[in-house]
Design brief:
- The chain is mainly beta.
- Among the domains are: about 20-55 and about 315-360, no CATH class; about 195-290, Trypsin-like serine proteases (Thrombin, subunit H, Beta Barrel).
- It contains 5 helices and 22 strands.
- The protein has helices spanning about 40, 60-80, 90-100, 140, 290-300; strands at about 45-50, 105-115, 115-130, 135, 150, 165-175, 180-185, 195, 205-210, 220-235, 240-250, 260-265, 270-280, 285-290, 315-320, 330-335, 335-345, 350-355, 360-365, 375-380, 385-390, 395-400.
- The strands form 2 sheets. The chain has a 6-stranded antiparallel β-barrel with strand order 2-3-4-7-6-5.
- Strand 17 (about 335-345) and strand 18 form a beta hairpin.
- The protein starts with about 35 loop residues before the first helix and ends with a strand.
- The relative contact order is 0.21.
- Residues about 1-30, about 115-120 and about 305-310 have low confidence and may be disordered.
Length: about 400
């Protein structure tokens, strides 16, 4: 799993990044001066330099995670209009299960971009495990992506709130069992968690209920039966990854986008997590609940704070210049992007401007006590402007707004 994915962290982030010493308040530009624009800092007279990074300043990987979170969000906005409240047709039990469990099911959107096109994108399902914001999904849903975000099902009506996309970061993953645990970076209050069932209670021919996003048809309901419980079942995906776990064999409708969705009993307890299907065979499989419990318990026991430390990333050629009022601007030129860090007269970063080689723009402002910026304005290649709120160096919330 790429270390980039959930440095949103992402993604997204989803598991908190190491905090830096708190100051009494976030620094502000001196003299009430407005912060310089990208055009202004690009026009400065730079000379080569070697300047230490400020404590907590976002890394190369974290900057890309912010940009990719915006791109994933843009992809999510294309999908959301497809949502229509599904009508359960299997009887009263199906209706009750959907109403009870669907608020615990989230949409997971991941994306990598190349130029103005999506080079890779992913859409899957996730399940809220507790009110602290832990979300379970498949390993293959998030593997290989640099950023991820989630959307919640609306409390009422049929239109998800496209202005609320939450950043997530990776807590733990198990490639063999095809499981991943994410953490919402700054979860909202009132999250509803699904209740985990028990393997011993599962019966062959038992009715089951599934909620997911097949082919982008959001929060769709389907039903079926347990066909069998298979121990040590092995399978492979098209990327060549190999997996093995105890699974539930099911007879039900499963399609791309259902991955990471819950398999529920008539009491809305989760019996498994949808993983894969054998195309054309009407054979569908879910990772069994006992495997899920073991994975989650181990992940929570480790209390990991987001997995491995972020990679240093690309090397930058560094330059420095001064503004007319004496503020230092540090320019870091990477192969795929250039960053301009504006420091106040005390040397504290007060603004970070980023321009990618493809022309995407990212501006961080309103420094927070953890070395990051509370607000990021992102402009993608289509001109769409988005606002990211951040309590550290990671994505808390992405919002589509008109940004001046």
């Amino acid at each position: 799993m790429s270390n980039k994915f959930m440095r949103l962290a992402v993604f997204v982030a989803l598991i908190l990044a190491p905090f830096h010493p708190l100051s009494s308040q976030a620094p502000n530009p001196q003299h009430g001066d407005s912060l310089p624009s990208l055009e202004a800092v690009k026009a400065l007279d730079y000379s080569q330099a070697s300047i230490d990074r400020a404590a907590g300043q976002p890394t190369y990987s974290e900057i890309w995670a912010l940009i990719n979170a915006c791109n994933a969000y843009s992809r999510g906005l294309e999908i959301l209009p497809q949502f229509r409240e599904p009508v359960a047709t299997r009887g009263e039990s199906g209706i009750l299960v959907f109403r009870k469990a669907s608020p615990s099911v989230v949409l997971v959107v991941t994306a990598n971009f190349k130029g103005d096109k999506i080079s890779e994108s992913g859409l899957g399902t996730g399940v809220i495990l507790d009110s602290a914001g832990y979300v379970l999904t498949n390993w293959h849903v998030i593997h290989g992506y640099e950023a991820g975000i989630i959307f919640f099902k609306p409390a009422s009506g049929t239109e998800p709130d496209k202005n609320d996309a939450y950043g997530v970061k990776l807590v733990s993953e198990n490639e063999e069992a095809d499981l991943a645990l994410l953490k919402i970076v700054k979860p909202p209050s009132g999250l509803l968690a699904v209740k985990l069932g028990d393997l011993s209670s599962i019966q062959v021919a038992e009715d089951i209920h599934i909620i997911g996003h097949p082919h982008g048809q959001l929060w769709s309901y389907s039903t079926g039966v347990i066909s069998q419980i298979r121990d040590n079942y092995d399978w492979q995906y098209s990327d060549g990854s190999n997996h093995e776990a105890r699974v539930l064999q099911m007879q039900t409708a499963i399609n791309p986008g259902n991955s990471g969705g819950p398999v529920l009993d008539n009491n809305a307890n989760m019996l498994g997590l949808v993983a894969m299907s054998e195309e054309g065979q009407n054979l569908n499989y879910a990772v069994a609940v006992d495997v899920i419990k073991e994975f989650v318990n181990k992940a929570m026991a480790k209390r990991t704070r987001g997995g491995a430390s972020p990679s240093v990333g690309e090397k930058a050629e560094q330059f420095a210049a001064k503004t007319q009022d004496g503020r230092l601007v540090v320019k870091d030129a990477y192969p795929k992007l250039v960053t301009y860090t504006v420091r106040d007269l005390n040397g504290v970063p007060v603004e970070l401007l980023v321009e990618t080689a493809d022309g995407e723009l990212l501006v961080g402002s309103k420094p927070n006590p953890f070395g990051g910026f509370s607000e990021w304005k992102c402009t993608d290649l289509s001109g769409k402007r988005m606002l990211i709120n951040s309590s550290g160096t990671e994505v808390d919330l992405v919002t589509a707004r008109t940004v001046e």
